[in-house]
Amino acid sequence: MPTIEELATFCKKKGFVYPSSEIYGGLAGFFDYGHLGVELKNNIKKLWWKHHVQNREDIVGIDGSIICSPKVWKASGHIDCFEDILVECKKCKSRFRGDVLIEDSLKIVADGISKTEIDKLIQDNKIACPKCKSELSNANDFNLMFSTFIGPKQSEENKAYLRPETAQIIFTDFKLIAEHARLKLPFGIAQIGKSFRNEISPRNFLFRCREFEQMEIEYFIKPGEDKCPFIQEVENTKINLIPSEKKEEIVTVKAALKNKIIKNEWHAYWLATEYNFLINLGVKAEHLRARQHGKDELAHYSSDCWDLEYKFPFGWKELQGIADRGNYDLTQHSKTSGKDLSLFDEASKSKVLANVVAEPSLGLDRLFLLLMCESFENDEKRGNVVLHLDKKIVPIQIAIFPLINKLNDKGRELFDMLKDEFVCFYDKSGSVGRRYARQDEIGTPYCITVDFEEGVTIRDRETTKQERVDLKDLKNKLRELLF
Ligand code: GAP
Fold first, then answer.
1. Ligand 1 contacts CB of residue 205 (under 6 A)
2. What is each CA distance from 317 to 65, 86, 312, in whole angstroms?
3. Which of 112, 240, 390, 414 is 20 to 30 Å from 291 at the Cα level?
4. Is 365 in the pocket of ligand 1 (CB under 6 A)?
5. Per-10-residue mean pLDDT, the chain, length 483
6. d(C-alpha 196, C-alpha 202), whole Å
7. 363 CA from centroid of ligand 1 (Å)
8. Ligand 1 pocket residue status of 333, Cβ below 6 Å
């Protein structure tokens, strides 16, 4: 696996990701996706949406606004509780995220560590400011919300926030969506969109940014109806589980439920469904694990949470959180807005306030980073990088090369014949070997070479083998290979 620095350099060189505002020295925690990055990112989003929304009868999607009434964030608890722990240098005033400072200084895992523990570790280990070596302050809370003003007057009553998660818009629109989409519990509402957090220490390239995208689902059930009708689809899935109070084990979902490692069927179902989504994208099982949050680590709204973690080049880190939010959010919004957010239940002829039994929340930029880490290989035999991206998400599906300039017209005809059905790229410059290498580096699974013979050759990224195909069979062959 490449280091994170190697990957960032590679992504920039190939047009996947650039530091934002680079000509002005960049802006920490902000990135721009280049001409290939945007294709890969869009393909991941499309695949996620197809799998989680369009292929399911029980989930619908929305696209909410980034700025909404500040009352939303008061009710959700984000204004009062959405905080990270900050430590400040008493002299140079540099600010550090407490857990990151501890991890960097002591080389230990510090996820979910408390303020008291941070203060004690700083004192016991005489940790000083990494920049000027002066004394550090006690740990304090720091709110991560980005604020702005609505309209021309910059006053407290016009203050608003950029959303730090997409989830709240699902809760505020819950009643409208449930009624208009005629949803009956259990059901889910999904959303893909930008979120913003004023992270104290943005770092590790796309892993922790200040502007990022989330792909989230709120899955609602009738309180007490904990049996998941889909559990059989996933019960043989084997996952490396790290429960908060038990030993690490690789077990099937069935065994995890039987042994009460995971308590709720729905929670187990969503953990396995999300795990399988990654496995189907080619992620290796040994690079994934699921870790349960300890009590101190749980977010203010959550009663249980499992993180799917990936073995990034900088260690095991959260890719996706799957939290049980209960009825925290709907209760808060009902109370604060005065609107009844319960649904009428035909079976009991009464109103019920739905429970969010699982909230699979996946960072798109983090998944992008993971897929780059997982697929990057510096192939010494070929003398170039090969990106073994899954065919479902590659930026370019087919590259078309005329062997020499004289074959340009034949090459162009082929491009026109294929472009409506496949994402094609036409390249006539450089040796064919160099052209193959350029496509390997960006993950293109098939290159078609046009020569003077009958038909064309298709070259496979994984094996480098070439196969001659008749023009009349070409489209079918490509469909077979790609879909
Ligand atoms: N609605 C629940 C929620 O937002 P979270 O664990 O704070 O939960 C969910 O975030 C996911 O969003 C994370 O697992 C991660 O993939 C992504 N994420 C969170 N903060 C991020 C950041 N600063 N940069 C990139 N991705 C981030």
1. no
2. 29, 20, 7
3. 390
4. yes
5. 96 98 97 98 98 98 98 95 94 94 92 91 96 96 96 95 98 97 97 97 95 98 95 97 88 95 95 98 97 87 92 96 95 97 94 96 98 97 97 98 91 96 96 97 97 94 97 97 96
6. 12
7. 5
8. no
